[in-house]
Write a structure and sequence with these properties.
binds adenosine-5'-diphosphate, 8-stranded mixed β-sheet, single chain, 5-stranded parallel β-sheet, binds the ligand Nc1ccn([C@@H]2O[C@H](COP(=O)(O)O)[C@@H](O)[C@H]2O)c(=O)n1
Length: about 625
């Protein structure tokens, strides 16, 4: 290759699109200067208090229902009633269940602290009929995003109050509470009306006046009418959702946006971080997440008001998208976000920036291919993993040098490390970062590879790159190197844009001898998306094989499977071309031969080999 071409930006960009692994590199918590914000996200603790039968449990149930996308656990103060001694049990009507001492508050504190630290706890089960805790069974309560602590006296002890992020007091009329209590205690707790009224007058009402009502002042929110107050409950749920969606870093850097976490989103993150996930699932779920990030990022762009006339002739006042827009991917992992961006913004221009480390002295070379009018555009900068932030800062600096105002840059990530957010936001406070998850911490074990490979991805590490040291004169460069696979290995090609359709796959085999390998002795199968292309194949001479096959989706996987004694497979080059859409006639294709003709059904769903164009 001429030196001139080798130095060209296009060449650098092309070669940079090869296999790429992006990872967050290890940083021990101790080494991190951001240990405070790296601390795992603490659960949100809500205290719900109020008089007996005020509707506390009902309100909690309504909140839990509405927070269905989050992990919420309910802890009842009732579970921490002390068991009665034999003596106390004998004259239970003299026992004050409404006094703070009736509860084991130390145990309650331990329980909430354990849950807040992210561990599960065994909560006692209380039996109101026998006034005892179950001796042998517990309720397992798991760590969660939200802990709701409910009970008549949960605001009484300051240490318990201090654990709460939000305190709600359910304020229901005393007469209504008494009538509910009579019904509940007679129907559910097997008591008679007179004992209920006696307990109410002797203990319940005085304790309400002495302990419960005075604790109302600690409440952040008071809900009159309890569960009937849907407006209050909706507002509370909205507030909790906002708090849950807001990482501590978003409070420090208001231009950092984490998309609202739901079980769907957490589920997808769980999948893409699972080392057992298949490549297809990895690509599918990371692409789904990337689309959400892209949509959210687009939502941060400026808009103008626009009115349209609807088919019924009325005026609809809406908004118009920002038109001066472009994407810029940080090569190479950023390219994996391009599909999602194109899917959301038809025809969007996409530029590329490659930051290339030159030697070990940290010197960086930057190559770029950007739209000429980039300074007039809003830029969506794409990189799925924001790790240290160093590359991102180089890319952003370059965009600013090109005349893009800092406030016109929206940096889209799938996963961000706190270090990266600090690094970028400190330097560029007017830029926006949109991410789907901020990692809690990076530890020695932690390494994320969340990006869909850019264009071609080799699944194995068990390969050898060979070079023919004695090529025959005139032998094309293509045939002087080969990849040898000593285990089942596959290339995944991400077929951009057109995806589904017919593709021509061309495989080049040139059997030379190098190192300890005689490529002519290789014997192997080749499969493409499960179709067997070559069975027990060996190449004794230079061979070129072509196949036409239909790919459903974005991925074409070409697999090499060594057979028998040879123990290895090889290939010199793979070419894939997209054929015209209807290149293969689906039904009714005929093979004409001496015996008449053979009709092929669903031909497009099969793989077809072409007639050898050149077979050496
Ligand atoms: N808004 C309401 N309308 C009718 N009944 C209610 C309402 N809120 C609660 N209740 C009933 O009152 C009783 C006590 O309610 P609960 O939510 O268990 O109160 P708490 O937890 O404060 O003791 C239950 O039987 C419940 O079904
Ligand atoms: N063995 C017991 C324990 C408690 N109580 C009463 O329960 C009330 C608290 O529960 P709520 O669901 O009404 O908040 C409290 O007022 C106690 O009097 C009881 O009767 N027997």
């Amino acid at each position: 290759m001429p030196l001139e071409k080798k130095n060209s930006i296009d060449y650098v960009m092309e070669t940079a699109s090869g296999p790429h692994f992006s990872g967050l590199h290890s940083l021990t918590a101790a080494a991190s200067p951001f240990s405070d914000v790296n601390a795992p996200n603490q659960p949100f603790v809500i205290g719900v208090s109020g008089g007996t039968a005020s509707g506390k449990t009902t309100v909690c149930d309504m909140i839990i229902q509405q927070l269905h996308d989050h992990r919420v656990v309910l802890v009842n103060q009732d579970s921490f009633y002390r068991g009665l001694t034999a003596e106390e049990s004998k004259c239970v009507h003299k026992y004050n269940f409404d006094h703070p001492d009736a509860f084991d508050t130390e145990q309650l504190l331990d329980c909430v602290l354990t849950l807040k630290s992210g561990q599960s706890v065994q909560v006692p089960i209380y039996d109101f009929k026998h006034h005892q805790r179950s001796s042998d069974s517990f309720r397992q309560v798991n760590a969660s995003d939200v802990i709701i602590l409910e009970g008549i006296l949960v605001f009484h002890d300051q240490r318990v109050r201090n654990l709460m992020n939000m305190k709600i007091f359910v304020d229901t009329d005393a007469d209504l509470r008494l009538s509910r209590r009579i019904r509940r205690d007679t129907v559910e707790r097997g008591r008679d009306v007179s004992s209920v009224l006696e307990q109410y007058a002797k203990f319940v009402k005085p304790a309400f006046d002495d302990f419960i009502l005075p604790s109302k002042k600690y409440a952040d929110v008071i809900i009159p009418r309890g569960g009937d107050n849907h407006v209050a409950i909706d507002l509370i749920v909205q507030h909790i959702q906002t708090k849950l969606g807001q990482h501590d870093l978003c409070k420090i850097y208001p231009n950092t946006y984490v998309i609202q976490s739901t079980f769907q989103i957490r589920g997808m993150h769980t999948l893409i971080r699972d080392k057992e996930i298949s490549k297809h699932d990895f690509a599918f779920y990371s692409d789904r997440l990337i689309r959400l990030v892209v949509e959210h990022g687009l939502g941060r762009l400026p808009f103008t008001e626009k009115q349209v006339i609807t088919p019924t002739g009325s005026i609809y006042t809406g908004v118009d998208f920002c038109k001066k827009l472009c994407g810029v991917s940080i090569v190479r992992s950023g390219e994996s976000m391009e599909n999602a961006l194109r899917a959301c913004c038809k025809g969007i221009k996409i530029g590329k920036i490659l930051i290339h480390r030159d030697g070990d002295d940290g010197r960086k070379l930057i190559y770029e291919k950007l739209p000429k009018d980039i300074s007039e555009r809003h830029v969506l900068l794409l990189d799925p993993v924001l790790a240290t932030g160093n590359s991102a800062n180089h890319a952003i600096e370059l965009l600013i040098q090109k005349g893009v105002p800092e406030s016109h840059i929206i940096f889209l990530n799938l996963i961000s490390a706190p270090e990266g957010i600090h690094c970028v936001c400190k330097r560029f406070p007017s830029l926006k970062i949109v991410t789907s998850e901020i990692d809690a911490a990076l530890n020695g074990e932690f390494r994320v590879i969340p990006v869909k490979p850019s264009s071609i991805f080799l699944s194995t590490e068990q390969f050898v790159s060979l070079t023919d040291k004695n090529p025959s004169s005139g032998s094309p460069i293509l045939y002087r190197t080969a990849r040898v696979f000593t285990a089942v290995s596959s290339y995944e090609l991400y077929i951009k844009r057109n995806g589904t359709g017919t593709h021509l796959v061309r495989l080049h085999f040139s059997p030379f001898k190098a190192q300890n390998f005689n490529l002519a002795s290789a014997k192997f199968d080749v499969l493409a998306n499960g179709f067997l292309l070559l069975r027990g194949f060996s190449a004794y001479n230079l061979v070129l094989k072509e196949f036409l096959l239909r790919v459903d989706g974005e991925v074409l996987e070409i697999m090499f499977s060594p057979l028998g004694n040879s123990g290895f497979a090889f290939v010199c080059a793979i070419e894939v071309f997209s054929a015209p859409k209807d290149f293969i006639i689906d039904d009714g294709a005929r093979l004409i031969n001496d015996d008449g003709f053979l009709v092929f059904e669903s031909a497009a769903k099969k793989a077809a080999t072409t007639l050898p164009l050149r077979e050496f």
